Amino acid sequence: MAQKLDVQYIRFYTDGSAAKKVAPLAPLKTIKLPKIKKHKKIVLRIDPLALCAIAMSAVMLILMTVGSVKLYTARQELAQMNSYVQTLHQEQTALTATLSEGYDLAEIERTALALGMVPKAQVQHIRIELPSEETAPEDPGTWELFYTFLTGLFA
């Protein structure tokens, strides 16, 4: 015969057909551990259109800077050339004055007549006309070029 002590589950008190929940004799002391925070994955989403726009604006900024520098140097060169032209005008005025003071026109004419110059009024003028040359053929028009293309295509 089986002993009643061998069967362990019947030690609990039952009231009717429902078994009551038995509270443990000594509650276990639970320690609250700090919760481990999960590291969120950093997701970096890049819009290709925005990236292209930023790159384009950077390129345009560089080109504008280079253009500004070239414009500045061109203006400096223009100022230098203007001052150079002014000095050349002054030099030309001085040389023209020196040249006109350096000779006498009446004396030059007497010397030229003594050397054999003939006045313009005494020279005989002969007019020579050349026969007109044949004109070069005109460039073909649009329709003529189109017609030539079609005849060459279907020939």
Radius of gyration: 57 Å
Overall pLDDT level: 84
| Order of the strands making up the biggest sheet | 1-2
Parts with pLDDT < 50 across at least 5 consecutive residues: none
Structural class: mainly alpha
Largest sheet: 2 strands, antiparallel
Shape: elongated
N-to-C SSE series? EEHHH
Instruction: Give the number of DSSP strands.
Output: 2
Secondary structure: elements and pairs:
Layout: E1 14-15, E2 18-19, H1 48-102, H2 105-115, H3 142-154
Antiparallel strand pairs: 1-2
Q: How would you summarize what this structure contains?
A:
The protein is mainly alpha-helical and 155 residues long.
Give the key terms.
3% strand; elongated; mainly alpha; 155 residues; two-stranded antiparallel ribbon; 3 helices
